[in-house]
């Protein structure tokens, strides 16, 4: 499935560990719950960028579209949860996003560029995880996750293109920096399952 998105595959530092895939299969209610939270957070991130950078015309256009799509995805996940009697509950955040965002530079345009690069990694990883999970899920959930691949891949492309547009220099070094961080966050063990967690801790 990911063969249609070679740039996305090349962007990510690694595939999801098999142990994480098995963990997800064993925790499908939690997967849906955290997925709903992820979609809501993604919409919030896009809106925050629109509020902060009101003079960036292309950003406003792409983030407005992205926010609408993420909210639609939230509604779709939430509907699936209701149909399956899965409660939508508060969850603690995974260390993934914070592990990336704590390295955002504080001066502009570096702050914006880093935020956009992180957005690209989040969307690319989401796309990869939906693709690796789809073959292992029931027909309804599998079709739903496959249906998300195209939009998640486009969101990755939008974030990366905006980072390149506003950097005024090569972003290769920052992409490499965050790629190394992302690799650690995806491969190091976690004690709680999340959409963007690492494999389960042996403890």
Helix content: over 70%
Average pLDDT: 96
Largest sheet, strands/sense/barrel: none
Number of domains: 1
| Order of secondary-structure elements | HHHHHHHH
Strand count = 0
Instruction: State the shape.
Output: globular
Question: What is the CATH class name?
Answer: Mainly Alpha
What fold name goes in the CATH topology slot?
Ferritin
CA-atom Rg in angstroms = 16 Å
Going by CATH, the architecture would be: Up-down Bundle
Q: State the secondary-structure class.
A: mainly alpha
Low-confidence stretches: none
What is the overall number of helices? 8
**Could you give me the name of the CATH homologous superfamily?**
Ferritin, core subunit, four-helix bundle
Residue fraction in strands:
under 5%
GO molecular function: tRNA 2-(methylsulfanyl)-N(6)-isopentenyladenosine(37) hydroxylase activity
GO biological process, one term: tRNA modification
Pfam families: MiaE
Protein name: tRNA-hydroxylase
Describe the overall structure:
The chain has eight helices and no strands. The chain has 203 residues and is mainly alpha-helical. The chain has one domain: Up-down Bundle (Ferritin). Helix 3 (28-52) packs antiparallel against helix 4 and helix 4 runs antiparallel to helix 7. The chain is globular. The chain starts with 5 loop residues before the first helix and ends in a 16-residue tail after the last helix. The model has no long low-confidence stretch (mean pLDDT 96).
């Amino acid at each position: 499935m990911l063969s249609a998105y070679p740039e996305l595959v090349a962007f990510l530092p690694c595939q999801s560990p098999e142990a994480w895939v098995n963990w997800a299969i064993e925790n499908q209610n939690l997967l849906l719950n955290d997925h709903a939270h992820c979609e809501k957070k993604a919409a919030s991130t896009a809106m925050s960028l629109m509020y902060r950078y009101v003079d960036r015309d292309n950003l406003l256009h792409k983030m407005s579209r992205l926010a609408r799509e993420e909210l639609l995805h939230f509604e779709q996940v939430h509907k699936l949860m209701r149909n399956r009697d899965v409660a939508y509950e508060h969850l603690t955040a995974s260390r993934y996003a914070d592990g990336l965002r704590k390295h955002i530079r504080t001066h502009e345009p570096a702050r914006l560029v880093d935020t956009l690069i992180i957005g690209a990694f989040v969307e690319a990883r989401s796309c990869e995880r939906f693709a690796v999970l789809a073959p292992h899920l029931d027909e309804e959930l599998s079709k739903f996750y496959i249906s998300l691949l195209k939009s998640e891949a486009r969101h990755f492309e939008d974030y990366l293109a905006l980072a390149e547009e506003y950097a005024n220099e090569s972003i290769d070094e920052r992409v490499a920096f965050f790629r190394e961080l992302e690799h650690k966050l995806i491969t190091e063990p976690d004690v709680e399952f999340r959409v963007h967690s690492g494999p389960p801790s042996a403890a």
